[in-house]
Write a sequence for this structure.
């Protein structure tokens, strides 16, 4: 049975938002999409990019993976989902902005911080969150820092690392240097709604003025 | 500069939805997430799962990749983003439902149907959408079917294939056979808002009653 | 020097079986083969499919690899021997039955069960028998089960997994659903000659009546 | 339903060969196998190594793939079934002889000779039989040679290539040079039962005296 919650939610969507934006949906369905912004976010159930940015259909091209990580350009592996999405966004959709959107209380980052890798008996998460290693190296030893504080720092450092990794893709770097593509880092605070944004000049995360 | 559209959207979110659900956000921020439903959706800017299912924060664990594909269990590759997310959802979050959510007018499926692979000069999309091949084999020859019709069929067949691939993960199969996890396939029609759901007994997609 | 044992065996074959079936061999040599049954068996020296099924030349198309494993459909790797053989059997030979033939006392399965992977200093076996992982996930924890019992269970679970993996190949699934191809699982007991066959309805292995 | 032909064959095996060799099977089941000879043969239904060499259970460790090919040592691919079997045979079983057993009328070699790659709409066979390319390069242009003649030559050349590839595995080369492992090439004529064996000194295939 299809989950009851989804059935109800879908009917609510149909009667409200779809009804209100029907014209827009019809137009969007005519061709392919043409969003200007790509968001690389986390799978976490509390941080939907469309909700946080109150986005309308057609506005955000969204990849979501565990801990919003971007791998570096690396050609020998198989099934590079995030790299494929990036390539599609940049080369096919000519996206203008890429936002790496992290968040506080990230289970993936925390698992790495707690050295819980491999997190389960499986093979996949351990390998995946190993991508956080360069950000952790960048931070240096945790020392006697509290786990919560260290995890928060690692969340930000990992966003920075993903931005560096984005630049390892030639198609990205070329456009960034030509000024036709901009990269951004942001981090959402679930409890207080605060959005920290990476400031280009200071290289620090600063809260957006509310 | 952080995109203007996102700034405005974020402030709208803060003043409206976050304000209205502040209590919920605060509670959600206290621990880790505990959603019961995982959605594997497409990056397409027109098909946000949270919008289509009018979901609240904390309800949906969402992976989004190009063409909402699930690879089969395959242990030798590197950086399996979707498999890692699946493992996290099943083994850590004990998710109860997995919904593979496709949609009409999918650029990734269409690219495969048009034999546009590799789609660009890059390496990633071509490999990624090659995962659609078994669904295309399943459909058989396109013959003189119109491209739109064939693409629509391939969208549904590909959802079916992802459901088959989910069962190659032992952790998934064990829970499905024990009745503690359910798999679902659904396909969203952008223009008319119709949601087709895969019927377990008939193995056919049928529209949800509105 | 060509091994003496093979020279003797070959002369015995020439004087006996080849002599008796000369006509059949001559006819078989005229064109290509047209077997109706594919067997995916183990390299183990004790479980020749032609001997166990007393098969005549031309009857069984036989793949043999370590632990009779079928990988899922996975398009990016190189040199997929078993997948290539499967494709040849299904698409070129139009095989009607595929039998995954396991056996007791399998060294490959046992190596996995003993967590001996990687088994040697080499790279290949460890990766190969990692394909057993989903079957092990399916079984759940070994707990305090004796190694022999656990290995026996894993042999059967792994046959089941290979049958699931066969269905990830669109060309296989299409024919199975159309009723023109049947999949079977069987497990041979070396010491007692017993053949366990997977029962379609109960999903259990049951011994063939002798 | 389990194929009738296999049921009958199995009962014939049980009543005859298993009955006659029961003692041997019981002994073989006590531990792991200890064959001295590995055969790398073709999946073709007409060329069972156990039949051609009238082998008893426990004597031959048998890999069978399309066109009896051995890939060179190559570490980046996934699921190297043949390399894994080779490693198991050499490092675990301490095999003394490896026989690459080809045959005439090989569909895989012929497909390559006819430039039928990719042979089908699938992805696997084409890649697999591409391993024949170095043997074809070795032979040189086909020119106006009849297809049957060229295919026969290519069957032999490909066996030679597999023997060269075997030597690219360090574990093999070390043992060959130490004299503890011997490599052999042989080709079976389906219609006349003739076995051609590669002569070490002349590097030519010569028929075994009958």
């Amino acid at each position: 049975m299809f989950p009851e919650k989804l059935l109800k939610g879908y009917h609510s969507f149909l009667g409200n938002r779809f009804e209100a934006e029907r014209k827009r949906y019809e137009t969007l369905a005519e061709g392919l999409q043409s969003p200007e912004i790509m968001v690389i976010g986390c799978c976490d159930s509390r941080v939907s990019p469309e909700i946080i940015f109150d986005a309308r259909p057609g506005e955000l091209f969204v990849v979501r993976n565990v801990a919003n990580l971007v791998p570096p350009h690396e050609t020998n592996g198989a099934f590079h989902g995030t790299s494929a999405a990036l390539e599609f966004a940049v080369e096919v959709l000519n996206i203008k902005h890429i936002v790496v959107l992290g968040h506080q209380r990230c289970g993936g980052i925390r698992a790495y911080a707690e050295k819980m890798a491999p997190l389960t008996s499986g093979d996949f998460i351990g390998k995946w969150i190993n991508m956080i290693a360069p950000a952790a190296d960048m931070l240096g030893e945790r020392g006697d820092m509290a786990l919560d504080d260290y995890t928060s720092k690692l969340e930000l450092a990992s966003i920075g690392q993903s931005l560096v990794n984005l630049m390892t893709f030639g198609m990205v770097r070329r456009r960034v240097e030509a000024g036709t593509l901009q990269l951004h880092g942001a981090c959402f605070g679930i409890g207080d709604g605060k959005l920290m944004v990476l400031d280009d000049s200071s290289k620090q995360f600063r809260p957006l003025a509310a």
Notes: Chain C touches chain B through 28 residues (CB under 8 Å).
